[in-house]
Amino acid sequence: MNDQIKILSTKPSKDYELLDAGEGEKLERFGVVILRRPDPQALWQKSLPTEKWNAADAAFVNSGRSGTWKKKSDLPDSWPVELSGLRFSISLSAFKHTGIFPEQSENWNWIERTVAASGRPVSVINLFGYTGGATLAAAKAGANVCHVDGSKVSVGRAKDNAKSSSLDSKPVRWIIDDAMAFVKREVRRGNLYDGIIMDPPSYGHGPKRELWKIEDHMLELISECKKILSPTPLFVLINGYAAGYSAVGYKNILLDLVPKNKGTFEFGELALESHSGKLLPAGIFARWSLDV
To answer: What is the pLDDT of residues 154-173, one digit of tens each?
Structure first.
């Protein structure tokens, strides 16, 4: 068994770059648009001068438990970007999100490589699939994918991203459902998957107000996922953004889910690399793949 701890960093590219980070904020370019957003992980001094930060096309301002965007009047409601060979529509949400998590680009590349190198038909389930980056990476490489998210809006945006990426004809099932409830139904139906992807939030609700709390429900979800993992699994990927959890803990989850005596385990941090060379922490991950 190979076991590696790593930092997966997203470097500046044509349509995305972390321009600067510090003093509790980050400054990013999405395509031609520059955004300024809070980020509690940015504990150091900013590198760029104040005028560069103040020139952002939109800035998210916290206000109590929520916040608002202050935008330039000519900022479009949405605009396209390309990352890891996939195309996404960017728009500004009330929760400071944009519809894409650029720190996941190295995971998307890994999914695409792993599926393509397998040389066999592959079925993948993506739980808490959001706007579809991991789903599209798997579909692009030839997998049959089941994309599950409790938000009708997120699934709609994922389908739009599939169309923008010219992947809308690929075999993807778009499911609006609670992740736990859907996996339990897949167990009863006897459906199996060669790859499992999950990005569980710390807290949330399904479409019928089903409660999700990671500390209460993660163990049960993993137990159910073990029942839908095929006898010849190819990969499993777990991402995490919940404060206080360790990548080591997520790697231990994988040890209970996948074969222990073969394949490669990798775990560590996700990060965004700025032009100053500093890495902005952006989450944790743990993943296992069969050596093919």
So the answer is: 999 999 999 999 999 999 99
Residue 277 near residue 283 (C-beta atoms within 8 A) = no
**Residue at 96 is within a domain:** no
The Cβ-side half-sphere exposure at 94, using a 13 Å CA radius, reads: 4
Kindly state the tokens that stand for 28. Answer: 């990013």
Give the end of a domain, one of 50, 65, 90. 90
Cβ proximity of 191 and 225 under 8 Å: no
Backbone φ, ψ for residue 274 (5° rounding): -90, 170
Task: Report the number of distinct structural domains present in the chain.
Answer: 2
CA angle 201, 204, 209 (to 5 degrees): 150
Q: Length of the chain, please?
A: 292
Q: What CATH number has the domain bearing residue 113? A: 3.40.50.150
Beta bridge partners of 18: 28, 274
Closest by CA position to 122, among listed 136, 138, 109, 105: 138
Residue 24's domain comprises 10-90
**The pairing of beta strand 235-240 with beta strand 195-198:** parallel
* Parallel/antiparallel/unpaired status of strands 58-63 and 33-38: parallel
Helix (H, G, I), strand (E, B) or coil at 63: strand
Kindly report the CATH number assigned to the domain that includes residue 76.
2.60.40.1180
Domain final position from 58, 90, 122 = 90
pLDDT of residue 166: 97
What is the spatial distance between Cα 95 and Cα 5, in angstroms, rounded to a whole number?
31
DSSP 47: S
User: How sure is the predictor about 191, in pLDDT bands with cuts at 50, 70 and 90?
Assistant: very high
Please give the single-letter amino acid code of residue 19: L
